[in-house]
């Protein structure tokens, strides 16, 4: 179930709601119970890691692993 972010036009508070579908009606504001709410765009965090890199050998992002000394 996706999380949608809303802004209340009456009290200007922001809140999030879990909705089953994006076509469900907008929920009322939990602070003032007004039905005048607007869905707003919200960001989300992702983490992408290429599969062909040995991440356990890297100290941090972008550093090369130490060279082997024989």
**Oligomer designation:** single chain
CATH architecture of the domain at 1-42, please? Single Sheet
Rg from C-alpha positions? Answer: 22 Å
- What strand line-up does the widest sheet have? 2-1-3
Helix and strand sequence: EEE
> What count of helical segments does DSSP give?
0
Instruction: Please give the CATH class of the domain at 1-42.
Output: Mainly Beta
- Low-confidence spans: none
The whole-number mean of residue pLDDT values reads 78
Helix content: under 10%
- Structural class, by secondary structure, is mainly beta
Strand tally, please? 3
Strand content: 15-25%
**For the terminal residues, how far apart are their CA atoms?**
54 Å
Shape: rod-shaped
Main beta-sheet annotation: 3 strands, antiparallel
